[in-house]
Specification:
Rna Polymerase Sigma Factor, Chain: A, two-stranded antiparallel ribbon, 2 domains, 14 strands, disordered N terminus, alpha/beta, homodimer, Rossmann fold, eight-stranded mixed beta sheet
Chain lengths: 383, 383
């Protein structure tokens, strides 16, 4: 699948998104959707005994497009292209990599912007409340459709890590191993608060119109602001300082206005505006709620109980400067797994880059994933 | 001044806000305002040699009403009533306490909601950009009007601490001592970013109307959201966890909506709505900008240079769980002062309560202030 273009070296090359539609999904809320479509991409080849499949679970703003390019002219690879490809940690010469857009999303999977067959109009807020369990159950249909009975590894950062944990708990027989990065068994009160101010930014926008904005101008300003708030939490204070410091964009007090004076403001605005082009505001509401509601402790009585039935081996990774999903939350997961006698590799990676470290070209993270997968692939190949 | 009501025990009692108008203020931006009014309150009595005056400098959302009650029926004392009163750290039996609303504010001092004499309409965004230096210069007029030549101490937390530092630098002969709490010589990039998303929440509100909303419905939703964002930063992750955890307000997924599901969301909304009743959105824009622009390093070449001319003694206090004004920023101030041979008492107070610790009933903070002031009052009384 490699392309010849130099810019696409070490890449899975040109890819396209596929769509799988299945008959019905029963949501945890008690509601049902029918039919349901998942957008997905695959990289590498499934081996004969179907033992080399890795499911990549994306975070809040991700999509099925985890690696590669859509065309020769495309200069923006998939969101985890640094980690997925020939010779990369998720080595497409060895493994079959699969990534699907979450249910409730806006990048090809059924979500609030999809047409409600009952009304012929987009769902908007008539879409069922989504949970991580619902996201995992939708992925289960896709995995079965592809004929995979056991997944070599399920990997994800942030909300992707929540899905990986849930998979191992809900479908223990199907999950050989889990790579859970910068995630949590339940978001902190501070995390919920930060998600809520993001949602409020969207819902305050008059163009949101209770979620009925499809076909007219959407709540762009609100969604952009939600993204700006999010971005602050994805970086560490130190990284923001190193990246922007207090450098000015416009310094003169005599002409100063309430436009952005500092570089850091300008950066956030750019991130916000860019996001509006590719994301649906209602999906932002639904997916942040799925994150908020995720709570393994509450759902299983305790974190210890949650992991009792788990059969997978675990690689758990936290980042020292991640204040959205602090290391203590990952350590809690590791302790509960070990108390259950599970096999866990844990690393608290020293970094100033904050939560988003998992999306960056970071050698210690690459090495950890690479070694863990190698070991797990050898293990599954022996059985 | 003590009242007889039990609820007002240890209080300065019933107080009223006074107003001082002076002819003209030249802003750092080069613009001028004329006339200028400051709202202020005083508690206790100025002694004969006028050596017991303490200036309290308020933070972003504060006002001149730092202590006492407006009436017998009033149940909400001034914002620092826990610290100001008979027998309290700012002991009104000994000291003459003065607090004024900042220029640009909305609680009686001239600000963007005041009438512009040139147009007969509220200033709105025609108000000059405000800096901490402008705030201090306005206070200088009030101090001189009261006949005070040397201030026993200038005390403030957060933006109040910035004013205290600036006073000691700009008017060294007038400042005997400084109490700088949970503040910074220059806000971090992360702090600027958080202020900017708050401002953006206001400016995104269509009722903001480029600042021209006086006389009609203002940007209440935007201001409320800005306050919600602020409140997240005033608490620590741990304190939020202890205060709210993941307790639900509404738990049932079947009936769940995008209204607040968790207690922490409900708390933030309450804080936001309450704020709108007492604060002006344009003042929020101006005062957060004053905080952003404050930069002693840039203004004086280095923090060391900033403190060369300073004559005051310092009490500097940081809180271990304050992530908005982290201890490292206070330590930087302490180091620069000590490198200049200044007399500094510094305490990094262990607390889980975050930035807002300075507003809470916190014994270690009370003791530090009390002891420092006692020492400083003895020192000034000897000279």
């Amino acid at each position: 699948m490699d392309t010849t273009g130099t810019s696409k070296k070490n890449s899975v090359g040109i890819v396209d998104t596929r769509y799988f539609t299945f008959e019905r999904l029963d949501f945890r809320s008690g509601k049902t959707l029918s039919p349901v479509t998942l957008a997905y991409e695959t990289y590498g080849s499934l081996n004969n005994n179907k033992s080399n499949a890795i499911l990549i679970a994306h975070a809040l703003s991700g999509s099925a497009h985890a690696a590669g390019y859509y065309s020769e002219q495309d200069t923006h690879p998939g969101w985890w292209d640094l980690y997925i490809g020939p010779g990369k940690p998720f080595d497409t010469d060895k493994y079959f990599i699969l990534c699907s857009n979450v249910i409730g999303g806006c990048s090809g999977s059924t979500g609030p912007s999809s047409i409600n067959p009952e009304t012929g109009r987009p769902f908007g807020l008539d879409f069922p409340m989504v949970t991580i369990m619902d996201i995992v159950n939708a992925q289960w249909h896709l995995i079965r459709h592809l004929g995979i009975e056991k997944i070599l590894s399920i990997a994800g950062g942030s909300m992707g890590g929540m899905q990986a944990l849930k998979w191992a708990i809900a479908y223990p027989e199907m999950v050989n191993s889990v790579i859970a990065i910068a995630t949590s068994a339940s978001l902190s009160a501070q995390g919920i608060a930060l998600n809520e101010v993001g949602r409020q930014a969207i819902m305050n926008d008059p163009n949101w119109n209770d979620g009925n904005y499809y076909g007219s101008k959407g709540p762009d300003a609100g969604l952009s602001l939600a993204r700006m708030i999010g971005h602050i939490t994805y970086l560490s204070e130190k990284h923001m300082h190193e990246k922007f410091g207090r450098r000015f964009k416009e310094e003169d007090l005599a002409t100063a206005s309430f436009k952005q004076a500092f570089m850091v403001e300008s950066y956030l605005h750019y991130q916000g505006v860019k996001f509006v082009d590719r994301f649906d505001a209602n999906s932002y509401l639904y997916i942040t709620k799925a994150i908020d509601y995720f709570d393994l402790k509450k759902d299983y009585g305790s974190l210890h109980n949650a992991f009792v039935q788990v059969l997978a081996n675990f690689l758990v990774i936290s980042f020292t400067s991640d204040w959205l999903y602090p290391s203590a939350q990952l350590k809690e997961i590791v302790q509960a797994l070990r108390a259950n006698g599970k096999n866990v590799m844990y690393t608290d990676i020293e970094t100033d880059m904050g939560h988003d470290t998992f999306l960056l070209d970071y050698e210690p993270l690459k090495r950890n994933i690479s070694n863990f997968l190698k070991r797990e692939f050898e293990r599954i190949s022996r059985t």
